[in-house]
Each structure stands twice: as C-alpha cells, then as structure tokens.
Design goal:
689 residues, globular
C-alpha cells in the first residue's frame, strides 16, 4: 500500500511513499484539510542524500504504531527542502529560535489555522535513546499540549511570530569607510581559528572572503594567505575529497578533515572547484589543488551529467553492500579494509600508497580506511596505478574505460542492477538551477585559469539547457525532473544563474572557439536580471525577497536571504551581479540598485559580520569595482591572475599606441601605454577602498 507521495517527482518524497504514515505533500488541499479537521500539522523536511533523514524513514516513519497515532491526531506533510528552500528557511529559523540549533530532518509542529510553529526538533528515535525521547512519546505530549494548554500555546505563537516578523524588518545603518575591513577581518577569522572540535565544513563563502583579504595591507590578527592555503590543503588532501574517483563529500565528522559524511552535493563541488581555481590564480599552486579540480570534473562528467548536459543534484551517503541487505550502510562504497588493500595491490603499490595516505590495520572509520593524503605534491605513477586499481574494484572497470557511469536512481535500481563493482549510492538526478549555476561558475573559472576548454564546453551545455528548458510562460523554474520542469524559481536560482552567465561571458572572452559568443551571455544575463527585478526586488526595503509575491501567500513571512550557509546567500550574490552588470553595460541603474541593496543590509553587516560574507563580497565589488578595456591577448594574460573585483571587456576601438584602459567605477585612469603600466593600474585599483 502506498500513500500520496508515490506520484511525487521528488526522489526524497518517493522514498516515503511506502510508509504507513498518511503523508501529504505541501499543497493547498493539505493545508485546508488541517484547518477543517483542526489537526496540528506535523511538518517533516529533509532531502534525498540526508543520512539521518534516511534513518528516521526506516525507523519511526515505518512503524505502524507511530503511523496510527500520527494519522489520527495530526496532519503529516513531507517537504523536500531542495524543491522548496523557502519553506525550509522559515521553519528552520523557527526551530533555531526554539532550540538554539537546527539540522535535518527538520521535524516541526504547526497550528492548523495559521501554520505557526509551536514545537520542533530534528531526529527523533523510535525508542528512547541518545538522550532523546521516543517519537511516540513526543507525539502524545505534543497532542496533549495542543488540546489542554491553549493559553501557553497562544503565548508560544505570539513569541514565534514576533521574532519571525522582526527578522524581516532590518534597521538601516551606514556603509562606513571601515566596514569592508571589518568584514574581511571577521570572516577571515572564521576559517583561521581551529581550536574548536566537531565537524569541518568547506565554508566556501568564508574562504572566498578570506582570499579577497590577501590583496589588502592592513594590520590584522589573521594571516589570510596562510588560512586560505590551509583550507585548500584540508579540502584537497583530506578525507572530504574522494582520492580514488574525484568529487567532494559534504563535510567531515571530525576536526581533522579525516572521515566524511559521505554524501556528495553538487553545490559543494561547484564552489570548491571555483575556490581552488582562485587559489591557483592567487599564486598558491599546489599540485594537489589541480588534481582535485581535474578529478572532480572527471567525476562530474562520469556520474553527475545527464545526457542532456545538465548536472544531477547529489549522491547519497549510504549504499547497499549486497542486494539482500534491507538497509544501506554509510560510506561502504568509499572505504577499504586493510586486508582488501593487501589483496588488491602489489607490495610495491601498497607500500607507496601507505607512504602517502593514512592506512592502518585498524582503520579510521569503523575498522575500514578513508584515504587521507599527507602532502600536496605530485603523486607518482605507482600511486596513481594503485588508485586506479581501487577505482576498478569500486566501479568494475579502470578509469579510462568508463566515460559514463549509470546512476542508481532509487534503492530498487541500486539493488537489482548487475553492477560490475560495488553497489553505488543512489543519485538524485533532478536538476536544480541554483546548484547547476554554482557548478557552471566553477567550471568557467577553472577553464580560464587552467586553460581547459573542455570545462567551458561542459558549463556552456548546462547553461544552454537551463535557458532552453527552464522557462514556462515567461517564468524561470527551479527544478527539472528528467524533462519535466517544476517549481517556480526563487532568489538563489536567479542570483546564481545570473552570476553563472556573467562568469561564462568572462571565460568566453579568451576561448579560442567559444560555443557561445560573450555578448550573447551578457544579453541573457540582462534578460534574467530584468525578470529577477520585476518579480522579487523589494521596492520598499531594498534587496530581493526569496519568493515572488504571487507564490508567497501560503507562507508566514517573506524573507530576504542574507545569511550564508552551505551556499552563498542570494542577496550577496545578487548585489555583486548588479555591480558587474554596471561595469559591462555602463548602466548606472545597476549601480544605484546595488547601493540600495547594501544599504538595506547595512545593519546586519555592522552587527553580525560573520553571518554574511557574501554581502561583504558584494561590498568589495561596490568599493573596488574595476573595468579593464583591452585586447583579447591582454585579457588572456590578466584573467589567469587573481583580480577578484575586476571585469574584462574586449575593446577594438583602442588606438594602436594604447594597450588598454583601466576604469574605476565612474572614472578611468590615463590610457596605459604598455602591459606593465596597465598591470600596475589594475593592482592599485583593486585596493583603493
């Protein structure tokens, strides 16, 4: 017997289709039914590759006793946060207000009439353990509270709504002269401090901000270059990177960057590729950085690229070790026992691998070994041969024999297909515009800096898919399920796709034979920006709402995203885009709009500098924006260097005795008569604030 979720396009929702719980998707009918029956809403939010979401689905959500009580006393709604991040954002904020922390699965209880949250948590075990009550006990207590404690319930509702509404009304402060320096210092501190324990996340918006600091010469508590280099080494050498087959896992569960939480998310990989390319352009050219970029692109082509050219969303942390298993194991696809390595490798290969990687008899993860490198040098041929053999055990063939590896689209496919190697994790094959855009930007940057035209071609094909297939009735849509476009786009989709289009414009300037002309990318960016402004710009407050007015009526509040998480906040990216579009078009309306946006979030930047590195990236663009008008040959030389607040433009009208023109905001320097003079002007322009 299946429930309503069986017809869902979302892989995450379909994973719950056989639960005995009478799940609803988030829809008008579900919300109206809750109101008519006066049943509190049990809202459960997660995503396909979330490990603890999978655990709870197999435990509490599969239990008949819990299902019976939940169906009778609540209206259960399941939401895929990757489809509907605006719903997740509001209720995650509420959960953090209630408990001081958040995470997924996000399980929260709402009043049926106003959908105001009054209790929440994350993972609830079936039986009491880990210091947490059993889920049935929780449900019974919440229903008693809802029925009997009406006064307290009203107080909770009032407090939560007051906090949520206040979060949308930001006071206006000043964009003071020292504000950028304050942001650079605070956000560099975030990735410089290593004294705390616990998990390690890439935190690329912070690393990007710290990298921007290396070009400034002011007294500082932190060595930005050291911190940025170390973050690159942690990523490229740590267990967070898949040294056998490429691609980055989401985070490590320890402070030593050793054992990952094994899911691979497209959004992390796009950001990390761009960051490592930027590090390379800034002169930190460790061989391991280039190998990690190259390996990640190989993984992307092999396992994460649809035949149509777009990129899949994620791969699970868990996989089955045999078709007979009822539940998958975390990380089994990626780890190696000491005995396996001895059997697979020659003694010479084993010794060489052990010299460069963390390999022990006892292992570092449940008796198995997660590979972690000791240095960033080139790997010799013996080690590469050993890693290729491990690849063959995992995938069934050597790396050079596989151009495309079939995705396992669900558990049934994973268990029934005749895999040549290990059973792989499930791949969520949906296309998300925002996440594809992050990967497009990473590929465009790496193509320019490493001179890899193939990367630009991959990025171009993905962007063209979005341009051709993601508009319905003149409106950008967020997701695509194997040809079916769905869910109206949100601010992060617009902001990140516009950034990707501008990045493609810049990368195409120096390509020998770009698939798309640079000016075509610019025209598309302007069109998408116009739609973004019309639908989501707040005329009264400044900045962009997460959702358009005509799609936000069912939500408690309309948020404007400005806090960075695993991905950069939409408003930070959007404001940077406005400055870049101003430089390319010389349209002052873009610059005015950028100033309004920064002013709208000025109080957050003043009081909570560590919360919003992307807004400070936008402030850097606003304060130090530089346009270089010159020849393709000069751009080819300059664009492989690190100039993070610079836009290049080919200018065929420059006189023969002039090399180029460096313009700062609303004024231009004297025409540069040679490459050295232009470079000096450009370097000075990058630090003028």
């Amino acid at each position: 017997m299946v429930n309503r979720l069986s017809e869902s396009k979302s892989l995450y929702l379909r994973k719950h289709a056989e639960n005995p719980i009478d799940w609803w998707p988030w829809c008008d009918e579900a919300l109206e039914t809750a109101k008519l029956t006066n049943k509190p809403i049990f809202l459960s939010i997660g995503y396909s590759s979330c490990h603890w979401c999978t655990v709870m689905e197999g435990e509490a959500f599969s239990d008949s006793g819990i299902a019976e009580y939940l169906n009778k006393n609540f209206l259960p709604i399941k939401v895929d946060r990757e489809e509907r991040p605006e719903i997740d954002s509001i209720y995650m904020q509420a959960l953090q207000m209630m408990t001081g922390q958040g995470g997924w699965p996000l399980n929260i209880f709402l009043t049926p009439d106003e959908r105001i949250p009054f209790f929440g948590g994350t993972y609830f075990p079936l039986e009491p353990r880990y210091g947490r009550p059993g889920f049935l006990e929780v449900l019974q207590a919440i229903r008693r509270f809802y029925d009997l404690e009406k006064t307290k319930l009203q107080t909770f509702k009032d407090e939560i709504m007051t906090h949520l509404q206040q979060s949308t009304m930001l006071p206006i402060s000043e964009l003071t002269e020292d504000l950028l320096q304050k942001g650079l210092e605070a956000n560099t501190g975030v990735i410089s401090r290593n004294e705390y324990g616990g998990p390690r996340f890439p935190m690329i918006p912070y690393a990007d901000m710290a990298l921007r600091k290396i070009r400034f010469n002011f007294e500082s508590e932190y060595d930005a270059q050291k911190a940025c280099t170390q973050r690159g080494l942690d990523l490229a050498l740590g267990g967070i990177y898949d040294h056998v087959a490429g691609g980055f896992h989401r985070y490590t569960v320890d402070p030593t960057w050793t054992v990952p939480h094994f899911e691979k998310m497209l959004y992390d990989n796009g950001q990390i590729v761009e960051y490592l390319a930027d590090l390379w352009s800034a002169g930190v050219q460790k061989p391991a950085f280039k190998r990690a970029i190259q390996g990640t692109v190989k993984w992307l082509k092999r396992e994460m690229t649809a035949p149509e050219g777009y990129f899949y969303a994620s791969q699970d942390a868990d996989n089955f070790t045999s078709p007979e298993e009822s539940e998958p194991e975390e990380g089994a696809f990626y780890v190696w026992s000491h005995r396996e390595l001895e059997l697979i490798l020659t003694s010479e290969e084993y010794a060489a691998l052990q010299e460069q990687f963390s390999i022990t008899k006892s292992g570092n993860f449940e008796g198995k070994n997660v590979l972690q490198r000791w240095n960033a040098d080139e790997l010799n041929a013996i080690i590469e041969s050993a890693l290729a053999k491990l690849f063959q055990i995992r995938y069934g063939e050597l790396p050079e024999a596989i151009t495309t590896f079939r995705p396992a689209r669900n558990n049934q496919e994973a268990k029934t297909y005749n895999w040549l190697g290990r059973i792989p994790p499930v791949t969520d094959t949906k296309m998300i515009v925002a996440w594809n855009s992050l990967m497009i930007s990473g590929l465009a940057k790496a193509a320019t800096i490493l001179g890899e035209i193939e990367y630009l071609e991959l990025a171009t094909t993905a962007a063209q898919f979005i341009l051709k297939h993601q508009w319905i009735d003149g409106r950008l849509h967020r997701v695509n399920y194997e040809g079916e476009t769905d869910v109206v786009a949100q601010s992060e989709d617009y902001a990140l796709f516009i950034k990707a289009l501008i990045d493609l414009h810049q990368a195409s300037l120096t390509a020998t034979s770009p698939l798309v002309k640079p000016d075509d990318w610019l025209e598309q960016a302007k069109k998408v920006q116009e739609e973004f402004n019309n639908l989501l710009w707040s005329v009264e407050l400044g900045g962009y709402f997460n959702t358009a007015k005509d799609t936000a009526e069912e939500l408690l509040i309309r948020e404007r995203s400005y806090i960075d998480n695993a991905t950069p906040a939409a408003n930070g990216v959007a404001i940077s885009n406005l400055v870049r579009l101003f430089l390319l078009t010389e349209n002052l309306e873009f610059l005015d709009q950028a100033e309004q946006g920064l002013t709208a979030f000025s109080s957050v930047m003043q009081k909570s500098s560590q919360a919003c590195p992307s807004l400070f990236t936008a402030l850097d663009w606003y304060r130090n924006n530089t346009l270089v008008r010159t020849s393709t040959e000069q751009i080819l030389t300059l664009s492989s260097q690190y100039f993070p607040a610079t836009i290049f433009k080919v200018d065929h009208t420059i006189p023969q005795n002039i090399v180029g023109l460096v313009c700062q905001g609303l004024k231009c320097n004297k025409p540069a008569q040679n490459s050295e003079e232009m470079l000096a002007q450009l370097q000075a322009s990058q630090t003028r604030s």
